[in-house]
Every structure is written in C-alpha cells, then in structure tokens.
Recover the amino acids of this structure.
C-alpha cells in the first residue's frame, strides 16, 4: 500500500517545488514512510508435527522492539487471529494435513501492518522433534554413552556437540552426527574418541528420518559430563563398642576434581539393615565424605559407593566381623518359637570351621508374616552349629545386641575322629599325644570331652583302661606305662548324645635301662672336684680372717767400726741350737759334752779356723779397740749367766730352735 501511493506524492512534490506546498508534501511523505517502517515483515512460518501430542506447532520470527505486536496466522482460508507470541499451537483436526496449503503470517504494530511471504507446504511431510530432555550419560570402554526419551519407535538422526570443560570455556566445540538406536523406549548414541579421564560440556539435538521434510530440534540444555569414577573410595573405619551396639565411623578421601564436576553423592549400605535387622534403614544417601552408622555385635558388610552424573564407582566393601567373645556357651533358651515384636530380630549364622559368614545367616524379625516365619524356622538344619544373636532396636534407632550363644536345633554324635592323632617323645613309662580338633561341621553337637583309651598288647588277657580329657585340649601326656610294652591307644570325641569314631595308634615303650657307670664316675669326679674347690676356698677365707705371723725384722748390730777399710764384713747365720738336759747335781758340763755339738753355725766367708784367726787378729795390735774386747767379754758373761739360770730349772727341758732368724721356745715336762 505504501509503494502504490509513492508516485502521487512524487508528482505533487515536483509541481510544488519552490513553494510552501512542496515542503508540506515532503513532510507528509516522510511521516508516512516513518510510520510504515515501524512494521518489519515477519519470516515465513514453519508448521510441523511434534509427535508428542495431537497438535501442530507453527513458528516464525520478527525483528522488532515493540511489545504490543499482534499476529494473524493464515492456513489457506483459515485465519487464527490475535496471537501474541511468535508461535502457535493448533490441533491437527483443524488442519488439512495431506494437501498443499498456503500459509503466511500478518503482523500488526500500532496502525500499521506487514505480511510475510506465502509458502505452499504439505503439513504431514514436516516433522520437528522437541529438544532432548533428561539426558543420561555413562562411560563405556570405547566412549561416552548418551540416552534420552525416544519420540517414536523409529530411529532418529542425532547431532552431538561437546567441549572439554575448563574454567574459562576456551576449548573449541566438536560436532558428531550419528544415527540413534532404540532400547527400552530410549534413544541412545555412543560418542567415541572421548577421554574418560576428562570432564565435558555436551549438547544434543535430533531430527526424524522418515518424513520428507524433517527439521532439527532445538539444542538440549548443556549437560555436564564428569570423568569416570574409576576407583572405589578409600575408606578408613573406626569402631567403638557402646552399650551393646557398635558405632562405626567411616571417612574417605574426596573423589578427583574431574570426576567431581557437577556433584558427587555417596550411597552406604550394610547387610544388617538391608535385611531389616532390627532397625529398618536400608540405604543411606549423602553428599559429604564421612558418615557414622551403628551396627549390632553380629558380622556385617558395609559398602560405600560414589556416584556422579556419569555413573558409579566400584563399591568399597568394609567387612566388620562379629565382636569376639571368649568361651561362648550353649544357648539355654531362645526366642525361635516365641512371638516376636517389630523391634526384635534374631540372627543365626551357620558356622563353618568356627567362622561366621554373613551370607549364611538366617534372619527372623517380628515384621515378617506368620507363614514366612514358619518357613524360616523350618530352614534351620539339624546337627548344624549356629551362632545365635538376639537384637533389639532402641528408641534412637540404634541396633543393640542383648544375647549371643551357640545353638543346635538337634544334636548327634561326631561324624569323624580327631585328626592327625600322633605320638611323640616316647620313654619307658610315658608318651606325648597330639591331635587336631574335630571340625565343627563334623561335630554335630557340643563336645563334652574326649575319651582316651589304652590297651596293653600281650599274650595274656587284654585290659582296656580309659580316661576323659577336656574337649578344649589338643595334646596330652600319657604316663604310668610299662617299660618295653606295646600299646594300642585310641581317642574319640564325645557329645551329649554319644561317642564318635575313634582314632587309633600303636606305640612301643622303651625298655628300662640300667644305671650307667659312666654317669657314676662323672658324679664321683664332680664330688671330688667340688670338695677340692671348697677346701681351697675355705683356706683362702681362713687366711683372710687369721693372717700368718709376720717375720720380725732384726736390725743389724755393729759393735764397732773397723779402723781398716780392708777388713771384710761378716755375717752370721744361725741354723740350729740344741740344748741337752742338765742334771741339778752336776754343776759343770761333762767331759764328753765336747763330742755333742752344742752350737752349730757357719760364717759366710770362711771356716771356724778362719773365725779363730780373725778373733786372734782382732787381739793383735792395730786390730780392734778396747771397746770391742769389752763387748766380747760382756757377751760371754751373759751366756754364762744364762747357763747358770738353766741349771736352776727343776725337771724341765728347754729347747730353743733358731730358724731363719726366728726363735721358737718349746717347753715340755721332764721325764
């Protein structure tokens, strides 16, 4: 309309040039053009089937900043008026789908309007899917697997674009186009050559493959793809006993940064709560890397799994064994045949060689139905040892163990004899016996004791001697045997029902040996050796306590100094002095006394004659002084005085012994 009126404005402008009329006409033209330019023609609409419902959607676009724009959509002669958005949803019953139709859009902006170009289409040939939603992702060995809801049962063509994740998004986008496959009403594609150790940002769009005029859907929202969780959490466990329950504190390191893009959740499960015993808390979900849970005294397995948008980590399995108890007794009473409340749980662990295994547990709770409880009771086997637990759930939802003991539904005799029954250290009167305990699976009851029997093998009548041994022993010393005798020895386990098979061995005691002569000689030698050592030690002690008399020191007596330096020194050594008995009536020595040596001595340098010569020389002029002569005379007079005193002793014998400068005086009664 604006283009048709333009020549008239132009002619009048030319006629009125140079006058006021020309200015008015130009002003009116510019005003009209400015009003018409406010409406820009919208794009040609595209109408398509979404496959999501029974409606068709028509979309167009328009470059305008006005907010009060109204649209009219035309389908041949059909008109849909007063549309305020750039799209419209029309039920398929109002449209002619299989014949060509002309469609266009008319826009109204204020007092002006503009129209898009017309387009002739067959509506049934044009299909556009909605953008993919709720996309699930998971890592495979050869790439990334993407899944989303399928629009129809036919496969679609998908375009995937991805970008390696970083803080500033500087990486370039890459595009991959591939056909989808359908599995469980889900489209899925696998994008290869992507590193599972890196994080990505991913978008998807898809389009159908069957229609003649398929349209690409809009891009999906950006999906954050974290790296694969390749390892399980490294869990450390701290356990603490608290009033019949165990407080289990679990901590582990955070997952790697690339695997933590988006968010990481953790799932914790334990076998006790998964069986509903006794507090029914099956699975725990949380976001932090530590958790505290409570379990009873029975064995339990705890698993911790990390989960991100791309999948799950391998589970970290923590095996918490049953709390050990020394000397578990047999159960005197159980609640197996009693009515249980909902807060009570019974567990029976099938013991295999003394070990409790959580996979062999029978659980009975008050939450189970009566028929189910009867089936559980019937599943308890005869002759099988069980570890029996009674648990209860407190008001704070913490399981607590109130009883544990060993249980047999029915007992029997052992199936096997004690294993590896062997003798050792055989002597003439004893032997050491050892064996391995009967496996618990073969005991079939509680062992009360072992029965040990011995039979002496001889030509005479055999006598069987038996004794009971504690069931906790695995060795025994058998004594009071006869030397040089052959015995049959047997051992069997005994339960309250009876005695099991016997393990039998044959031994020969050693003959009695005579006393060894060599040992006797060694004993005698040892006795004398010890006696000698003791004597020597006693003498040493005596010498320490009573030391010997010390040798007196006799100072040198020099009556005079020789005047001549050439005179030789002389030294007297007295060896022995013997005195004979003198009778009182005799005042002088007998004549024959000269034959008896009264004094024996010798000089160091010369004989007696030399001594006499020296004495003679001493009386010579120029010899010794008068002082020396007076000394000799004094000695002789002293000796004569001593002899006179000895004559006065009645019935006594005096004997003086000179030895090495010592004088010993021995007196005896006269005969």
């Amino acid at each position: 309309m604006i283009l048709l009126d333009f020549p008239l404005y132009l002619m009048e402008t030319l006629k009125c040039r140079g006058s006021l009329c020309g200015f008015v006409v130009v002003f009116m033209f510019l005003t009209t053009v400015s009003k018409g330019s406010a409406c820009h023609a919208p794009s040609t609409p595209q109408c398509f089937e979404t496959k999501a419902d029974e409606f068709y959607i028509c979309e167009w676009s328009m470059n305008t900043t006005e907010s009060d724009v109204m649209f009219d959509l035309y389908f041949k002669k059909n008109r849909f008026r007063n549309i305020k958005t750039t799209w419209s949803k029309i039920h398929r019953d109002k449209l002619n789908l299989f014949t060509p139709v002309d469609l266009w859009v008319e826009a109204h902006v204020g007092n002006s309007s503009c129209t898009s170009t017309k387009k002739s289409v067959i509506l049934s040939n044009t299909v556009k899917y909605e953008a993919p939603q709720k996309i699930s992702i998971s890592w495979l060995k050869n790439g990334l697997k993407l899944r989303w809801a399928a629009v129809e049962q036919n496969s679609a063509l998908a375009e995937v674009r991805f970008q390696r994740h970083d803080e500033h998004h500087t990486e370039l986008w890459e595009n991959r186009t591939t056909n989808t496959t359908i599995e469980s009403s889900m489209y899925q594609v696998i994008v290869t050559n992507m590193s599972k150790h890196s994080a990505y940002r991913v978008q998807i769009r898809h389009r159908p493959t069957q229609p003649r005029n398929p349209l690409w859907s809009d891009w999906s929202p950006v999906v954050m793809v974290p790296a694969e969780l390749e390892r399980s959490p490294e869990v450390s466990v701290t356990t603490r006993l608290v009033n019949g329950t165990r407080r289990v504190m679990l901590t582990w390191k955070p997952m790697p940064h690339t695997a933590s893009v988006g968010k990481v959740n953790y799932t914790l499960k334990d076998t006790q709560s998964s069986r509903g015993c006794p507090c029914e808390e099956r699975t725990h979900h949380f976001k932090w890397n530590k958790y505290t849970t409570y379990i009873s005294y029975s064995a339990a397995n705890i698993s911790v799994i990390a989960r991100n948008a791309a999948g799950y980590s391998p589970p970290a399995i923590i095996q918490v064994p049953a709390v050990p108890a020394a000397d578990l007794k047999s159960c005197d009473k159980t609640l197996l045949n009693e009515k249980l409340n909902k807060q009570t749980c019974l567990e029976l662990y099938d013991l295999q060689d003394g070990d409790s295994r959580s996979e062999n547990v029978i659980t009975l709770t008050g939450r189970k139905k009566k028929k189910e409880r009867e089936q559980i009771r019937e599943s308890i086997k005869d002759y099988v040892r069980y570890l029996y637990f009674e648990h209860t759930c407190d008001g704070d939802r913490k399981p607590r163990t109130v009883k544990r003991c060993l249980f047999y539904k029915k007992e029997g005799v052992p199936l096997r004899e004690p294993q590896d029954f062997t003798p050792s250290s055989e002597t003439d009167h004893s032997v050491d016996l050892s064996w391995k305990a009967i496996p618990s699976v073969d005991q079939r009851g509680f062992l009360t004791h072992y029965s040990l029997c011995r039979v002496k093998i001889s030509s005479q009548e055999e006598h069987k001697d038996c004794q009971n041994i504690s069931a906790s022993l695995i060795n025994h010393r058998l004594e009071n045997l006869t030397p040089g005798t052959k015995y049959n020895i047997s051992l069997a386990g005994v339960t309250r029902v009876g005695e099991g098979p016997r393990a039998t061995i044959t031994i020969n005691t050693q003959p009695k040996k005579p006393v060894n002569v060599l040992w006797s000689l060694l004993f005698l030698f040892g006795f004398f050796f010890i006696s000698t050592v003791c004597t020597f030690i006693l003498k040493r002690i005596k010498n320490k306590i009573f030391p010997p008399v010390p040798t007196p020191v006799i100072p040198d007596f020099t009556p005079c100094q020789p005047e001549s330096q050439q005179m030789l020194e002389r030294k007297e050594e007295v060896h022995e002095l013997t005195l004979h008995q003198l009778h009182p009536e005799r005042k002088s020595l007998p004549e024959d006394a000269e034959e008896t040596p009264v004094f024996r001595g010798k000089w160091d340098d010369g004989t007696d004659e030399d001594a006499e010569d020296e004495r003679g020389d001493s009386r010579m002029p120029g010899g010794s002084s008068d002082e020396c002569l007076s000394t000799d005379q004094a000695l002789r007079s002293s000796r004569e005085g001593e002899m006179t005193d000895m004559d006065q002793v009645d019935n006594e014998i005096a004997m003086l012994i000179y030895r090495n400068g010592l004088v010993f005086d021995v007196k005896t009664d006269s005969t």
Remarks:
- DSSP finds eight helices and 41 strands in the chain.
